[in-house]
């Protein structure tokens, strides 16, 4: 079952050596070989559980906490050191558990998006996961297929492969099954072989698998290559930048407060060290990195339930910030079920002959037009076997045609199909062209995609020497989906511009785009040819008004995406074919169709299993909810950290004892942030997120203002409560009260943080249902706090809190709750006022303009 140097043998010899046949293996034999050779996957360098656990402590915020623990140890507070250490370990264990769950979820998502190959098993073609390919399997390959293993060609037609990932050769390479090559021929000259990692860009083929997994040529290259770290995502960079700046802010503030405590208030050096510990511990939102990951993972799982599979986890954040959807037409906006709708011909027999023979459909797979023609022609597979193809020119995206030569009744004939405008260049029946032009316009006005067919003598493979008679037109119907209009309207209401890219004629594209609301009377339609003729400046201006791009080539799609990005747009591109690959790669977010080519899927960051624009718009809705949840959790963790920071800072400046000790702060963080922040990923859509402008900012000025507002106001209120209690009660009683009051205020803030903009009392039902898990987390937090103050008071340096003093924690909680509620109502009022002033200004300008007239 091995075949060394398969390119040196004929395909029949290779089949013999691999103990297989043209119709493939039996399922039983394939399973035996799978156990023998293993799965067809390259092993990824995994990370051990041991490494994963210690990664929980590998961030700057945790380093600060470790510094606090060491200061505690060297200042003689050994017990506090061990408590801080144990709480750090507990946080690490929780983080480790959550990351293991996240990793399992991601593996499940990867399984969903595993590529499939059409393989002959038990003498019939069936889809098999590429990971289950074994030597001896016979595979069918089409334009856009990703080659999943090293294969020897058995049969091929107009086959070309992109081998750039292996050889660096930018041009596609011709392949031919019949060749037998000498030993020692280099990889890039083995034209009878296909290699794992390459892509079929034209034609069809049948090939037998000779090597899988680690035995492929791709695996040998991977083993030699030095692994480079993956580039950081914008989200990762944003949080790293925030962490660095926040650390500088903390260090500056804490050093300043330490100097004030030491020099101005003449505090003991050990006491100052302990103060610094308290400040460090209070200011660090140690759960932030983990919760961000959880929000993305849970968001990806939610998207998977809505037919959107995420291949690149951070891309879920990009969804919510999209400003332009550049959508392919076929299969996304339209049904994709192309069928022959209308026919006009001068010779029906010849038309059907060309439609049958100038066609690469096989087993119901291939180009959509070819498949539609195969369905239209009776006994397609059986009839075309009567003719022998002697030459072919696969569909050329530049020439917009496909040609083939056959021997028919003893004569070599040229059969051609493609765009009428292209076939007219080779036409000898000039007198009929006006009639064909008229019929094509009629078909296009009805939204039909029109293909012309020609027939002539085959004298040369050079296009310049072709002479044909145009014999007919076929109009293909691909109606828009019922959901497309609503999807376009929802996107436009969300401030997202939708443009359509298609290879169809302008008239056909305009008809479809008008039906779904993409094209409006004032919009422009731009063709690929027009794009090429425009200067960059002129094209940039035209792009602002164009909503339909017709007769567009892969390079035009790529250029369109790049120019939209240069104009500041965040571009989502959908596509399914090999011609969509450049644009999908260039886009901020490439989305491939589930039924599309493997090439398109391989470069996309997301795959939608249901080919529908509605799914993309729903995914954007989900992406906006994810961004909203990220903003909410950032607000909650940082505002509660600032509450503690301000409370302690005010006490230090007033030369009062510490209102919270480091152990107490860590415990508060555990029972507030530690339990509540884990439920933020489950928050539902807050309000009409699709009516907001796209945004991907997590630390904009409104966000910073909200964080500082809550931390400052409630921190000041907590300090005033602390000062009041010190005048009435002992320090032990006061500290115990503030310990619980700080936790209560943070719980109240957690309830409010579930809705970023909408006040709690504006929609009570939504407030209680937006995240039901929150109230479970609150119950756990309250139970743990009761356990701390009544069962373990000595550990946390408190006394059991008398029930009469519970009014103070409740007061601070109510204050924290209504401070946020008031801020939200004020934001609504000022937003309304701003809009009213803007409308008044517009009306005034209009009146002045009318007066001038």
What features would you describe in this structure?
By secondary structure, the protein is an alpha/beta fold. Strands 8-21-20-19-9-16-18-17 form an eight-stranded mixed β-sheet, with helices on both faces. Strands 1, 2, 3, 4, 5, 6 and 7 form a seven-stranded antiparallel β-sheet that branches. Helix 25 runs parallel beside helix 28 (731-753). It is elongated. The termini are far apart.
Helical content band: 40-55%
Overall geometry comes to: elongated
Low-confidence stretches: 224-232
Mean pLDDT: 83
C-alpha end-to-end distance: 89 Å
Which structural traits does this protein have?
21 strands, alpha/beta, 853 residues, elongated, 51% helix, eight-stranded mixed β-sheet
Structural topology:
Layout: H1 11-17, H2 27-37, H3 49-55, H4 60-74, H5 78-112, E1 116-121, E2 124-129, E3 138-141, E4 150-162, H6 164-167, E5 173-174, E6 193-194, E7 199-211, H7 217-224, H8 234-264, H9 269-283, H10 288-305, E8 308-310, H11 315-320, E9 324-328, E10 339-345, H12 348-357, H13 368-376, H14 380-384, E11 389-396, E12 401-408, E13 411-418, H15 420-423, H16 433-445, E14 449-457, E15 469-477, H17 482-493, E16 497-501, H18 506-516, E17 524-527, H19 528-533, H20 536-543, E18 546-550, H21 554-566, E19 571-575, H22 581-586, E20 589-593, H23 598-603, E21 606-608, H24 613-653, H25 662-671, H26 673-676, H27 701-728, H28 731-753, H29 764-769, H30 773-791, H31 807-852
Parallel strand pairs: 9-16, 9-19, 16-18, 17-18, 19-20, 20-21
Antiparallel strand pairs: 1-2, 1-3, 3-7, 4-5, 4-6, 4-7, 8-21, 10-15, 11-12, 12-13, 13-14, 14-15
Helix pairs in contact: 3-5, 4-5, 4-9, 5-10, 5-25, 8-9, 9-24, 9-25, 10-24, 17-24, 24-27, 24-28, 25-28, 25-30, 27-28, 27-31, 28-30, 28-31
């Amino acid at each position: 079952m091995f075949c060394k140097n398969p390119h040196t043998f004929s395909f029949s010899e290779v089949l013999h050596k691999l103990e297989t046949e043209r119709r493939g293996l039996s399922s039983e034999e394939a399973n035996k070989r799978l156990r023998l050779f293993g799965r067809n996957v390259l092993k990824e360098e995994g990370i051990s559980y041991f490494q994963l656990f210690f990664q929980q402590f590998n961030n700057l915020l945790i380093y600060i906490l470790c510094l606090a623990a060491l200061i505690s140890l060297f200042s003689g507070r050994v017990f506090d050191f061990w408590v801080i250490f144990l709480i750090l370990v507990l946080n690490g264990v929780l983080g480790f558990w959550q990351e293991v769950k996240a990793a399992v979820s991601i593996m499940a998502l990867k399984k969903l998006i595993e590529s499939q190959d059409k393989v002959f098993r038990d003498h019939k073609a069936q889809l098999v996961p590429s990971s289950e390919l074994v030597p001896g399997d016979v595979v069918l390959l089409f334009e856009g297929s990703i080659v999943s293993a090293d294969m020897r060609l058995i049969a091929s037609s107009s086959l070309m492969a992109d081998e750039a990932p292996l050889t660096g050769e930018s041009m596609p390479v011709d392949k031919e099954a019949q060749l037998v090559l000498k030993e020692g021929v280099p990889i890039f000259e083995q034209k009878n072989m296909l290699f794992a990692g390459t892509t079929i860009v034209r034609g069809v083929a049948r090939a037998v698998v000779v090597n899988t997994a680690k035995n492929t040529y791709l695996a040998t290259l991977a083993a030699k290559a030095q692994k480079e770290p993956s580039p950081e995502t914008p989200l990762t960079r944003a949080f790293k930048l925030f962490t660095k700046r926040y650390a500088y802010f903390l260090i500056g503030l804490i050093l300043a407060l330490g100097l004030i405590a030491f020099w101005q208030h003449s505090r003991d050096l050990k006491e100052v060290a302990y103060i610094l510990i308290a400040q460090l511990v209070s200011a660090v939102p140690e759960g932030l990195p983990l919760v961000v990951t959880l929000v993305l993972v849970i968001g990806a799982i939610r998207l998977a339930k809505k037919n959107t599979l995420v291949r690149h986890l951070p891309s879920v954040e990009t969804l919510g910030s999209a400003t332009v959807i550049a959508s392919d037409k076929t299969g996304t906006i339209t049904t994709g079920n192309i069928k022959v709708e209308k026919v006009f011909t001068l010779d029906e027999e010849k038309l059907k002959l060309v439609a049958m023979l100038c066609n690469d459909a096989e087993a119901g797979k291939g180009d959509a037009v070819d498949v539609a023609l195969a369905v239209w022609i009776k006994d397609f597979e059986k009839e075309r076997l009567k003719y022998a193809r002697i030459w072919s020119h696969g569909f050329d995206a530049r020439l917009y045609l496909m040609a083939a030569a056959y021997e028919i009744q003893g004569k070599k004939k040229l059969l051609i199909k493609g765009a009428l405008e292209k076939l007219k260049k080779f036409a000898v029946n000039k007198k009929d062209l006006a009639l064909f032009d008229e019929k094509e316009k009629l078909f296009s006005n009805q939204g039909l995609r029109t293909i012309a067919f020609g027939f002539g003598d085959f004298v040369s493979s050079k296009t310049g020497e072709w002479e044909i008679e145009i014999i007919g037109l076929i109009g293909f119907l691909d109606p828009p989906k019922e959901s497309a209009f609503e999807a376009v309207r929802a996107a436009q209401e969300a401030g997202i511009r939708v443009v359509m890219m298609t290879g169809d004629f302008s008239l056909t594209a305009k008809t479809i785009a008008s039906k779904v609301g993409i094209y409006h009377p004032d919009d422009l339609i731009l063709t690929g040819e027009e794009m090429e003729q425009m200067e960059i400046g002129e094209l940039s201006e035209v792009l602002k008004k164009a909503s339909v791009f017709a007769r567009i080539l892969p390079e035009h799609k790529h250029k369109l995406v790049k120019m939209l990005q240069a104009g500041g747009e965040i571009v989502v591109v959908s596509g399914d074919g090999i011609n969509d690959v450049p644009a999908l790669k260039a886009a901020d977010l490439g989305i491939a169709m589930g039924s599309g080519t493997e090439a398109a899927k391989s470069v996309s960051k997301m795959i939608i299993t249901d080919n529908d624009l509605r799914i993309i718009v729903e995914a954007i809705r989900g992406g906006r909810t994810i961004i909203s949840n990220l903003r909410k959790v950032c607000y909650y963790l940082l505002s509660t950290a600032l509450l503690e920071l301000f409370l302690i800072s005010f006490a230090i400046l007033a030369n009062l004892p510490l209102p919270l000790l480091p152990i107490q702060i860590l415990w508060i963080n555990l029972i507030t942030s530690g339990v509540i922040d884990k439920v933020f990923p489950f928050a539902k859509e807050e309000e009409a997120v699709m009516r907001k402008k796209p945004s991907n900012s997590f630390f904009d000025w409104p966000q910073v203002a909200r964080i500082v507002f809550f931390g400052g106001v409630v921190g000041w209120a907590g300090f005033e409560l602390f000062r009041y209690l010190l005048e009435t009660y002992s320090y032990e009683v006061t500290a115990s009260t503030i310990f619980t009051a700080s936790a209560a205020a943070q719980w109240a803030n957690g309830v409010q943080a579930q809705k970023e903009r909408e006040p709690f009392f504006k929609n009570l039902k939504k407030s209680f249902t937006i995240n039901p898990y929150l109230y479970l987390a609150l119950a756990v937090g309250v139970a743990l706090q009761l356990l701390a103050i009544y069962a373990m008071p000595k550990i946390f340096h408190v006394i059991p809190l008398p029930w009469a003093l519970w009014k103070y924690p409740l007061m601070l909680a109510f204050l924290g709750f209504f401070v946020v509620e008031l801020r939200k109502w004020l934001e609504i009022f000022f937003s309304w006022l701003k809009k009213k002033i803007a409308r008044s200004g517009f009306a005034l300008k209009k009146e002045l303009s009318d007066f001038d007239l």
